[in-house]
Amino acid sequence: MTAPNILVLATGGTIAGAAGDAIRHDYRPGQLGIEELLERVRALGIAASLTGKQIANIGSEDMSPAIWAALHRETSAAMAEPECDGVIITHGTDTVEETAFLLDLTLPTTKPVVLVGAMRPADAVGYDGLRNFANALQVVRSPEAAGRGVLVVMGDKVIAARDVRKARTRGIDAFEGFPRASVALVTPSALEWFGAPWRVDEPARFAFAEALPDVPILTVFAGMPADYVARLVTPATRGIVVEGLGEGNMPDPVRQALVALAAKGLPVVRASRLEEGLVDREPEDEANGFVTARALGPPKARILLALLIASGVADLVAIQREYDRR
Ligand code: SIN
Fold this sequence. Notes:
This protein has helices at 34-42, 65-80, 96-106, 129-141, 227-232, 252-263, 283-288, 298-310, 316-325; strands at 5-12, 49-58, 86-90, 113-116, 151-154, 157-160, 164-166, 175-177, 184-187, 190-193, 217-219, 240-244, 268-272, 290-292. By secondary structure, it is an alpha/beta fold. The chain folds into two domains: 5-193, Rossmann fold (3-Layer(aba) Sandwich), CATH 3.40.50; 217-324, Rossmann fold, CATH 3.40.50.40. β7 (164-166) and β8 (175-177) form a beta hairpin. α3 (96-106) runs parallel beside α8. The chain is globular. 43% of the residues are buried.
């Protein structure tokens, strides 16, 4: 295989983190610059020509619409370059699912785009960042990687953006996929895809929105009073995602408060606070004026609703159709 040209966009996270001590638990994400990281990657001797660009160097709790816009701009430009074979984005693990899903919905599928992170900082004993990066290189170099949308590589798994979730706070196997556990298994020397690409040469599904509309997440808990809904909604709010109990359930006073907002034209999407589980449409959703998130957890349901609103999709049937498609 000739060495492919890969653009590496760095945003920080634990993959670029440092503790200053190999066995210390606490550390700071976003300490290594991209050139330091690429120097270590190049020393692995994998056939790839890597060009690094530092977009940010943050903990991903500080991921922002401005950084998303830069990532989208740089990735789109790279995908349009005939010489570029794919893009790797280094990212903190806390919000990688949101960035992956946003890019998945707003980029074409013509070249591989892979997000990668780490659970242990770069100076820790057992740093997983280098292995995850080597795995990401395996994926991006694969002729079968395009046509699957944006992918996340963590812990020897390749998980599609629609499915990926950080499921555990610690451990190098912190990521899960739902409903598909993974679309491939990968090591630095092997890659096994489960099935053929399913989104070959798809154009971007939505235009990228520089400013996403205000869509908060309402986390439901036992005994929640209805006034939590009013406390969350401001004049800027354009829609709400409900992180509901079980299959997207909520106490009746909360339901009534949300029905009143839905009646005023605010889209209300029921999702679940559980890690895994579909939230399907029930007969009462019609009467309540609610939409259901299907397989999307609340953070991704929020991204989709914000993009739909930004694209001018206001009709509840059309909004539900988009959740049913994911
Ligand atoms: C972060 O998300 O930036 C910190 C956690 C991590 O990368 O694992």
